[in-house]
Amino acid sequence: MRNNEDNMFHLMSKYQIKTVQSLGQNFLKDKNTAMKIIDAADLTQEDLVIEVGMGAGSLSKIIASKCRKLVGIEIDKKLIPLLKDYLNDCDNVEIIHEDVLKVDIIKDILEKNREFKSYKVIANLPYYITTAVIMKFLQCSEPPALSVLMMQREVADRILAGPGTKTYGGLSVIVNYYCDTVRVANVSPDCFVPKPDVNSTVLKFIKNSSQKVQVKDKELFFKIVKASFAQRRKKVTNSLANTLYLDITREDVEAILVDMGLDVQVRAERLSIEQFAQIADSIYHKLGQEKN
Ligand code: SAM
Predict the structure, then answer these.
(1) Closest by alpha carbon to 256, among 288, 221, 220, 285?
(2) Is the CB of 101 under 6 A from ligand 1?
(3) Where in the chain is the domain with CATH 1.10.8.100?
(4) Per residue in 39-52, pLDDT tens?
(5) Does the CB atom of residue 37 touch ligand 1 within 6 A?
(6) What distance in Å separates the CA atoms of residue 63 and residue 41, rounded to the nearest whole number?
(7) Tell me: the pLDDT tens digits for 131-143?
(8) How far, in Å, from the CA of 155 to the mean position of ligand 1?
(9) Is the distance from the beta carbon of residue 59 to the nearest atom of ligand 1 less than 6 Å?
(10) Atom 12 (ligand 1): residue with closest C-alpha?
(11) Is domain 2-207 annotated with CATH 3.40.50.2300?
């Protein structure tokens, strides 16, 4: 009997699949890593799972055996017959040939699966759209309860970083606003076929049961975080006062920082998520007062 890896290579040759680099096709061949991903997802027979980028199905078959329903999204038409063949003994799998970034795709999947109260996401992400996919799921109207995602190590490090570190940035703050993140495993290029040029990391994202920070205006909070980090070396006062879509002066920002007991020279990389929330709420009040 063939093991998973042999099976994958056999099917790839049967369907004459050549991996496409521009679609981020680095297929996972290492069974240990696959099991770490699956274990981290704590799957039960009640779960609905969405898999992004099924590839040749190396994760899909294991996921399907451990959950109630798997909905997999794969953009590459050539892989669909292979996936149907490989997964033909799994009657709980739906394969959607689509771009995961298509508007409303998550909403449409959830509409069709209303018997499930929540869902999980598992993916060995195509690296060229890593942050777009993460943000899409986090910011949709019904975010997943839990996600286990493989990504480029550098992106994972940015997500996990805390204030005062080199990799801390807007992505760390925004992801942290929505969920807690844990490193599951670092993965070497040898675990994939073909080998990627970068190292990978699997992260687990757990939706906050209670919001970590409360802000008056979420969009304003995100704008402030993004503007503050737009030029890392700049002081927050300069970054925010020079932002077209924020009608505030450097003096306003300085007054807010002083009120918070912060140095007016502070740079974004020093500010915690709680401090960003406080700045955002103060600006919200300030803008409100000016309107009245
Ligand atoms: N899950 C498989 C595995 O672990 O071996 C494949 C992972 S591979 C890194 C990423 C997969 O995502 C590829 O199969 C690729 O075709 C697919 N993909 C790339 N862009 C996509 C998109 N915009 N929407 C859906 N799938 C996409």
Answers:
(1) 285
(2) yes
(3) 218-291
(4) 999 999 999 999 99
(5) no
(6) 9
(7) 999 999 999 999 9
(8) 17
(9) yes
(10) 53
(11) no
